[in-house]
């Protein structure tokens, strides 16, 4: 894909300044990617109260630019926007689904669309991890991707689609617009094992939540602002039912919940732990759309999730009060939220050769998948469909070439009996769809076929294949 002229950076800076209002934005410098905001409520004291609020990392995210697809797929962002609008008109809940999907993707290894992948060769996908099992919006992303593939095949990454769709759906739900940098690649793998440790639980204390966000580079203020996304969408009763029935084994409801709210939540949930409740639920009924009403609810003891209500239990309460302070608070919240979303979208961007552009968002592109995993994977379990590895298999199985003798003909090679090599070949034929052959000789060695000074205790599927014969 072509990289736009550097002048597009100036366009990005101009769009960025739209986010600033006369009262809030004191200065915006393209060189530092930072906005300085008034901090009238803070008074400069304590904790995280610096007036400096991070808008971008101090250096421009590597490989990301504004308008990346301007020439390679000029209608890309328009196609995303129009499709999101169509989906939103059919079901407004798609906005919250896409924003949550975006967060759960970017919070692990940056916005790389790894959360969209299905299982690869039986390895569990990110969407199977406990925090992700209630994610929705996968079909919406696939619909957008299908339209982009029809217009510009193999051009627009699923990672960029998700970032753009989250922004566009948020605007439709009443949220702020903000500039989106593009140029991301799609990951060729998921990170199932890391999801549980990185995504905060719905029952997390404010300290645990702050720590999880701090590990990803977010300040206290940014964390509180990002959680304002909980002003839209639904949450299933099973995620908070213990708060209204038997909190912490006490047999009583959580005493941080308003008493009237407890009864209202019980009425909605009844005995069905799968029933949903609107995150915007309030005494006067459902608050329509995205907004700072979320923070007013928390101050009234009406937070549905414990992790939300916990924002009033520590130093974070001062930002809850700032955002809940009427029109001025709404304005500050929307600014802060937009800035934090830009920062979230810029985490660890995957660009260039380590990634690729998928044809379907739930499946890795096979040629790139082979390329990456046959050369670099520490796992040899990389069978996929009818594929064969594009690279030479293990060095001892590389046949003699014109430029170098094969290592299997070397005096020190083991096994020395031709029958052993034939046995390896038969095993490799059985495993012909595997992108790595290394486990097969390892397995034979463990079974005593090879004479080797090292007992074969390594499990199959743990070493990559060599691509050259060492001299």
UniProtKB/TrEMBL annotation:
UniProt-annotated binding residues for heme b: 230
Region of interest (Disordered), residue spans: 400-471
Catalytic residues identified in the record: 104
E.C. code: 1.11.1.7
Chain ranges of the Plant heme peroxidase family profile domain: 63-365
GO molecular function: heme binding; lactoperoxidase activity; metal ion binding
Positions with a binding annotation for substrate: 200
Gene Ontology CC annotation, any one: extracellular region
Enzyme category, top tier: oxidoreductase
CC cofactor: Ca(2+); heme b
Catalyses which reaction(s): 2 a phenolic donor + H2O2 = 2 a phenolic radical donor + 2 H2O
Residues that bind Ca(2+): 105, 110, 112, 114, 126
Cofactor binding mode and count: Binds 2 calcium ions per subunit. Binds 1 heme b (iron(II)-protoporphyrin IX) group per subunit.
Biased composition (Low complexity): 400-418, 426-436
Keyword tags: Calcium, Disulfide bond, Glycoprotein, Heme, Hydrogen peroxide, Iron, Metal-binding, Oxidoreductase, Peroxidase, Pyrrolidone carboxylic acid, Secreted, Signal
PANTHER family assigned to the protein according to its UniProt record, in alphabetical order: PEROXIDASE 25-RELATED
Family: Belongs to the peroxidase family. Ascorbate peroxidase subfamily.
Protein name (Swiss-Prot/TrEMBL): peroxidase
Organism this protein belongs to: Oryza glumipatula
